# Entry
Amino acid sequence: MVRHPAARACGFTGSLGGGRALFDAASSRPVPIPVFAEMGSTNPICILPGKLAADPAAQAAALFGPVTGGAGQFCTKPGIILLEEGAAAETFIDAFAKLVLDHAGDVMLNRGIASSYQGGIARLGATDGVTPVALAMPADGAPAVCGCAAAFRTSAATFAADAELREELFGPWTLFVLHESAADFEATIRLLPGQLTASLHGTEEELASAAKLWDALGQRAGRLIANGYPTGVEVCNAMQHGGPYPATTDGRFTSVGGPAIRRWVRPVAFQNAPEALLPPQLHNANPMGIWRLVNNSWSKEAIG
# Structure
């Protein structure tokens, strides 16, 4: 499709391998065309220690839904959770583990995705420095395409040394990355490739002094979230569902929301054009007027 001479652009949601294959094919055409591919994201969440200590069990319960909803197949599912070592982190992880063990599993989109997820979970469990926190088991009679929740933990040092731990695995699992200090979160975030979303949880006081960490998250993601979770996107003009590569092939665009139309149009400037050749919206225009679309009708407001 992207090689067909009639094609002018391509939109894609799927794997990094699939999106990159389309991008390369479109770029190799005699007349290249843009590919707007949304590919992979682990959507990191940083939970600062004061926020975590306030109610770690409640934090675990709030996270569980975004991790397992839709069998973990949302492109904004949180896959990496940054924590500071300590009692609150252990309480949080224990509470999350109990929720995982009670998870009956959900049907995944197809056999290939389910097989990839199950194989990925097995590889994680066998990775040096990575410890399974909890692995849910499929119920008797569950279909082969069932995806069961899983959680793992590792140290910041292991995470930094193993680039494969930073890759997306489609499904209902997450990885807790334990740090000696929350001051080290920024260094871990800077290791990550581009993301669709990044989240920061903290008390009012913690967030007020987290500008450097917030900026590091902004360098990696298209949507930043404070004290919230990224799953779910709203079709509105404020939505930014995109991010730096490999989250997407072009982080300047969104694939959800009103501005998504900009992927399929291009700007044209009119210089010295007589009014008869201008679009109707520009008739009688002047530099001191603003055009607004109100109730499907264009009108101009004078300024100055």
